[in-house]
Each structure stands twice: as structure tokens, then as C-alpha cells.
Amino acid sequence: MSKIIPNPPPGFDDLSVGEQIDYVQSLWERIAASPEQVPVPEWHLRILRERMEAYKANPSAGRSWEEARTDIEKKLRDR
After folding, report:
1. Is 1 within the bounds of a domain?
2. pTM score of the predicted model
3. Which domain holds residue 33?
């Protein structure tokens, strides 16, 4: 049975934005510590299947992780 938890939890709004981010990050780390318990929505699985099929149909159409990461980092620097 699920407990009803106030949203946001008491005291959350009194935290600075940085502290709120730290709080949320620590919650996620607790959840991620047991990945086998994290449900994966069906639509995520569907997208993964579609992308895998697209890759198998044309493996040279994609980019390496290194290329993608370089592009992402450049875009973040240019902001």
C-alpha cells in the first residue's frame, strides 16, 4: 500500500534551489541503488526497439558516442 506523502515534503520550500537539487539528487541515488526495482514504461521499451531496428537496418547512419558527446559539450559551452 502506498503512503500519502505531502508534495513537496515539509521544509522543502525553505531550502535554497541548490539544496533542493541536492535533495532530489540524493532521492534519485537511493532509487537508482536498486535498478531492478525501477519500472520501465512500455513506451520507453518501444522507442528502444524502434531505435535498435533502425540501427540494424543502417548501422552506418549513426554517430559514435564520442562524436555525439563532443557536439553536446560544444552546444553547452556555446550557451
Report:
1. no
2. 0.54
3. 8-38
Same domain for 25 and 47, yes or no, is no
Which cell is 75 given? 552546444
Please give the chain's pLDDT, 79 residues, in tens. 578 888 898 999 999 999 999 999 999 999 999 999 999 999 999 999 999 999 999 999 988 999 999 999 999 999 8
**Cα distance between residue 60 and residue 24, in whole Å:** 39
Per-residue exposure over 6-15, b if at least 16 CB sit within 10 Å of its own CB, e if not: eeeeeeeeee
Q: For the purposes of burial, counting CB atoms within 10 Å of the CB of 26, is it exposed (0-12), middle (13-18) or buried (19 or more)?
A: exposed
Helices (H) and strands (E) in the chain, counts: 3, 0
Residue 3 lies in a domain: no
